[in-house]
Hints:
By secondary structure, this protein is α+β, with helices and mostly antiparallel strands. The chain is built from 17 helices and 21 strands. It is elongated and about 90 Å long.
Amino acid sequence: xxxxLEQEFFLSEFxxxxxxxxxxxxxxxxxxxxxxxxxxIPEVTHLLVHRPYGDPPLLLPWDTISQISNTxxxxxxxxxxxxxxxPEENHIFLKDYILDKKILDMEDHEVEVVYDVKLSxxxxxxxxxxxxxxxxxxxxxxxxxxxxxxLARYTEDSSISWVYVQSLPETIxxxxxxxxxNILKENISDIHPVDLADILEELDRGQRMAVFNALDPELAxxxxxxxxxxxxxxxxxxxxxxxxxxxxxxxxxxxAADILSALPTSDAEEIIELVDQESKAKVQQIIEQxxxxxxxxxxxxxxxxxxxxxxxxxxxxxxxxxxxxDVIMYVYVMENDLVRxxxxxxxxxxxxxxxxxxxxxxxxxxxxxxxDTLSDAIELFSRYTFRAIPVVDEKxxxxxxxxxxxxxxxxxxxx
Length: 415
């Protein structure tokens, strides 16, 4: 695996680094080759090396690179002449083909120009993670890196994840083709965390980390809340503990507790020690409560009716039926003390007056068991949009109902 001292850097910083074969200098990096066949995020497959004295350029495969430092690149090739430039049709030269190209939105409105590309290294692989259209980035290419970074700091966010870049046109080269996005110009600065979460879940591990690490802390934190627990564990487990704590500090204590509870105990304990002291106490309290048995939070005050009950009977008398009930948005359809289905109040209002509950009920129930914990209930409430969840035994006898309102009173996370 290639050893890289930096995890993120800009293309403009990378180009021009000296390339060595062991201790012998063989040239300078002129460009990077990317290919899009491996997913949404292009992966660097080759390095284009310019050689002095008129020697032909080299195209070094990424897997021949053993180390990259802040100033140099070391390759372990044995014979440079075996790697003379011979590009394939699907090779895209990142500097030559992408920099200074127009960025168009999905309706072909011009957004800006590509002034730089952000690169991210994950697990020994290098990805083009962001397109940067901050015009001050061009100062980097003139050698004025500090000035470029200073000016960029005082401008609005000017980069976009490569996940929002459409597949590059086959005809793209030094002079033809543009970079086209799959969002509208006015939406570029308002990418929703839910959309990013969906995309992250589709990527492989290396690509996922390349995208996630490029996000600012607030967006990264919001996105982390939206991805599924498996991906949460992977993202948190792959980053430094202090960065994980930084992201958790951006969340409500309950959301942070959710994520920590999905991690191995040793990792969770390390991270929670780095969380802000005020949040730390709340998070620990919530985690401790998560282990409590769900039967401590059930209510029996719910609306129950038989399958042959007419919708109009409930609607016409709803005020009296719902009085003193803890759960009033669902009707539980019961037969021989077993729960057979549930009817949402909205479905009840839309039903024909002569329809029976058996005709409009949902019989594919999501339920909790009497041995489940508060954390199990919270996971279901997070996954679905229910406002109450029934608790049943192995025979489907209704033991009670846990309401979202009831959980709110115990868990600050739901406020």
